[in-house]
Write a structure and sequence with these properties.
mainly alpha, 62% helix
Length: 160
């Protein structure tokens, strides 16, 4: 009788071992599928992020072009840094002159408004806007055209 119980226990153990092996294989297949799905989701998320950035750039370009064509091309506090740099090619140099972008210690986000960066960094907003608006010419036929301005690369503060 002991032999019969031992053989039955051995058979049950083998069936259980086989079942555990099958479950382990199925778990491995499920992990592989999950990894594939995760990779696909990551690629899709990256594509969406790229498309959103392209959409933001295109939208900003269209807004700047509309400003130019309407003759209302002026730098304003609500304008983003991205729009400012698109409105005039030297706007980034003026911003860098105020330590707003241009190096790692004074970097700005392209979607921050000029008012936000002035407030957060203690820059006089009116002075920044006046300097930026000097870059814009009167234009032809009411359409404002950017003009290139010589910007000195050295700023001397001679306050005594």
């Amino acid at each position: 009788m002991t032999t019969f119980v031992s053989v039955a226990a051995l058979l049950i153990a083998l069936v259980t071992l086989g079942y555990a092996w099958m479950l382990n294989r199925e778990l491995d297949r499920a992990r592989e599928r999950l990894d594939r799905y995760n990779r696909s989701l990551f690629k899709a998320e990256e594509s969406i992020r790229t498309l959103r950035a392209e959409l933001e750039d295109a939208t900003t370009r269209l807004q700047v072009e509309m400003l130019r064509r309407s003759g209302d091309a002026r730098f304003s506090p609500q304008m983003t840094v991205r729009a400012a740099t698109l409105l005039h090619p030297q706007a980034q140099q003026v911003l860098a002159g105020f330590h707003l972008g241009g190096c790692s210690s004074c970097a700005v986000e392209p979607d921050e408004t000029l008012a936000e960066i002035c407030a957060s960094r203690g820059v006089d907003e009116a002075e920044l806007l006046a300097n930026l608006n000097q870059l814009l010419g009167n234009g032809v036929n009411g359409v404002s055209q950017p003009q290139m301005v010589k910007i000195p690369n050295v700023h001397l503060d001679l306050a005594v």
